[in-house]
Amino acid sequence: MGTLHVLDHPLIQHKLTHIRDKNTGTKDFRELVNEIAMLMAFEITRNLPVAETTIETPVKTAKAKVLAGKKIGLIPILRAGLGMVDGMVRLIPAAKVGHVGLYRDPKTLEPVEYYIKLPSDISERELIVIDPMLATGGSAADAIHSLKKRGAKQIRLMCIVGAPEGVKKIQEEHPDVDIYLAALDEGLNEEAYIVPGLGDAGDRLFGTK
Questions:
Q1: Are 98 and 73 in contact, with CB atoms under 8 Å apart?
Q2: Does the pLDDT of residue 141 top 90, yes or no?
Q3: Which residues are involved in binding 5-phospho-alpha-D-ribose 1-diphosphate (predicted)?
């Protein structure tokens, strides 16, 4: 079964407190989400393989490390996942970015796919699916299914706030996918919002209701 990682770095937790606060406005919310995404990307890439190379410093020839192995693909789930892309690309500028568009049917609460645009070589890339919230897990599970049926082999899921219900769904449907969260919250309310959560991440990112 995929491993759940809760990234409790003090800087991540400090910024998370501010995005939970209902008084944080759109501009600050957007900047903080990007900063959290960048900090989480630092943690999620900790074990990327490296190779040794030789360079010339201003002083002498030296051996140094460079990234090796498979390249990274970032797959935000539209629309809220877009709010995390810039922070991650700032840290991993060579990453390619694909998009998966899903919406939740208001009656069934099931995800509906409406847009897919991916790098042509996703089978050769380590993909990180990104979305601020992991609530029921339906959208993330469906997005991962979409990637797998198009040839993806290595996938990780990165969300800022998750609920146990969403974690359980991913682990049941995609036991090969590791999950990375900044916080694992209490659960879901009757409207499938994470409690205590931070509200609707998409609305708060883009100033909509």
A1: yes
A2: yes
A3: 79, 104, 131-139, 200
